[in-house]
Amino acid sequence: MAFILESQKPSETRAFGQLVGRIINQLGETRNRAFIISLEGPLGSGKTEWLRGFIRYFAPKEQVLSPTFILMREIPLNHSFFKKIYHLDCYRFKNEKEIEVLGFKDIIRQPKNLVVIEWGDRLKKILPSGIWRLKFKHQGLKKRKITLEII
């Protein structure tokens, strides 16, 4: 089953990120490992805009920057259950082994972590089942199609 959103502008993409944040907020304490979201799609398809809305839900004052050159950002949270968001950008990764250096296996074992992976399709071989995958596609200059699946 998939949920599909067609976004007409960046503010709608961010609002969808906030909506997913609200849903995960309700589901968070039911997990025995980190909540993992894979963001997949070409450059400029809305991944970072969606993430701005998602992070704004949990950390309203946090400025969202893409961690392309630092690979991972850790965002501490003042939340009743979730304690950190890990924002990874795998665009520059050549293989799954490169992420192990960042302590990825330990990060995803912690149920109080939210892990959002841009270019998560590059880690397919090592991601556990039950993650949320958002696929982003261009539908014109500003329009985006976002598909949410649990895989």
Q: Describe it for me?
A:
- It is a single chain.
- The longest helix has 18 residues, at 10-27.
- By secondary structure, this protein is of the alpha/beta class.
- The chain has a single domain, classed as Rossmann fold.
- The chain has helices spanning 10-27, 47-58, 97-100, 104-109; strands spanning 2-7, 35-40, 72-76, 84-89, 113-118, 132-138, 144-150.
- The mean pLDDT is 86.
- It has a 7-stranded mixed β-sheet with strand order 1-7-6-2-5-4-3.
- Helix 1 (10-27) packs across helix 2.
- A hairpin with a 7-residue loop joins strand 3 (72-76) and strand 4 (84-89).
Biggest sheet, spatial arrangement of strands: 1-7-6-2-5-4-3
Rounded mean pLDDT is 86
Largest sheet: 7 strands, mixed
Shape: globular
Low-confidence stretches: none
CATH architecture name? 3-Layer(aba) Sandwich
What structural category arises from helix and sheet content?
alpha/beta
Under the CATH scheme, which class? Alpha Beta
Number of domains: 1
| Termini separation | 10 Å
Radius of gyration: 14 Å
What's the CATH H-level homologous superfamily? P-loop containing nucleotide triphosphate hydrolases
List the helices and strands and how they pair.
Layout: E1 2-7, H1 10-27, E2 35-40, H2 47-58, E3 72-76, E4 84-89, H3 97-100, H4 104-109, E5 113-118, E6 132-138, E7 144-150
Parallel strand pairs: 2-5, 2-6, 4-5
Antiparallel strand pairs: 1-7, 3-4, 6-7
Helix pairs in contact: 1-2
